[in-house]
Amino acid sequence: MSEISSTRSTGPGASPGSRADSADLRGALDGDDAAFTRLVAPLRPELHAYCYQLLGSPHDADDAVQDALLRAWRGLAGFEGRGSLRSWLYTVATRTCLDIVKGRGRRALPVDLGPASDRVVLDNRPSTEVGWLSPYPDGDLGTGPASPHARYERREAVELAFVAALQHLPGNQRAVLLLVDVLGFAAAEIADLLGTSVASVNSALARARRLVAEKAPAASQQRTLRLLGDDRIRKIAAGYADALERHDTEALIALLTEDVTWSMPPLPHWYSGLPSVAEFARTVPMGLCPSWRTRLVSANGQPAVAGYVGADATAPHVAWAITVLTLRGDRIAGLTSFLDATHFPSFGLPNMLP
């Protein structure tokens, strides 16, 4: 993604809790776990986003951050106040995530696994053989003391296309790309972190940049969204939600680009192009799902709609899918519907609407 590779977030030493002479750091070094908790609290959101970028799953990121902070607490004596605490925590988090990556394959979206289906597949069953990419609840990324530009970059770095592109890289290349292009670490710092040479870091970075440039769009969603403005973005998302609730296929189609795609992990089949997507919309969400209720949310720095399905308009509606919308201009160019009720609590949503 060109914007990410051409700009950097706050540097490795610029963040609350990064100064080695802080009172909480002294207390933590003396064994005060409450001081350590206060010390790392401002860094949790960015560490969590970083682990998600590496692992492709908020739940895996939860585990990785918890494990990394436990490792950091147990090994805090090894830090001894030298340099930036933030840099050291990213070192621990990186090693934790790379250990997890070694234990399983990459996460994917249906578009990564095969060509689009040319007809509606009604027996489209979930694939349990694939580790699927999951949506990211991005509410914490807009908070905290970071500058507006830094918050913009944080949201850009969790966009669905970018994180999906990262999953095509070996773990060490993912880490190098993120640490250099997103977080602003120097090659020498990363070489020390990974136990390798600066030349190896630069080589891994070049390979990672080439592959991500092939897989991710040149224009980020943040750039598109900034040009549209909040009111227009909300209108598009609300239009999709309203069309779904009213079972108005034509209204939904009017929101889509000609080359729109629609995928539904963990279902392996996906659709590409307005005719195929329109046929799918008429047949499945508008045809087979009796009643919809929706809530507007944000996921991966993008507009999203949480959908609930009920037997009829008066019946309870159960959590069904978080659909992340990818926009181009003022149209929807991609719909990724994550069909798993377990995603809903992380967005602060109930599993059922009465």
From TrEMBL:
Record-stated family: Belongs to the sigma-70 factor family. ECF subfamily.
Domain of life: Bacteria
InterPro entries: NTF2-like_dom_sf, RNA_pol_sigma-70-like, RNA_pol_sigma-70_dom, RNA_pol_sigma-G_actinobac, RNA_pol_sigma70_r2, RNA_pol_sigma70_r4_t2, RNA_pol_sigma_r2, RNA_pol_sigma_r3/r4-like
Self-association and partners: Interacts transiently with the RNA polymerase catalytic core formed by RpoA, RpoB, RpoC and RpoZ (2 alpha, 1 beta, 1 beta' and 1 omega subunit) to form the RNA polymerase holoenzyme that can initiate transcription.
Residue span of region Disordered: 1-24
Residue ranges that the Swiss-Prot or TrEMBL entry lists as coiled coil: none
Alphabetical keyword list: Sigma factor, Transcription, Transcription regulation
Keyword Transcription regulation set for record: yes
Protein name listed in UniProt: ECF RNA polymerase sigma factor SigG
Span of domain SnoaL-like: 239-333
Limits of the RNA polymerase sigma-70 region domain: 39-106
Pfam annotation, one family: Sigma70_r2
Domain (RNA polymerase sigma factor 70 region 4 type) ranges: 161-210
Keyword Nucleotide-binding: no
Record field: compositional bias (Polar residues): 1-12
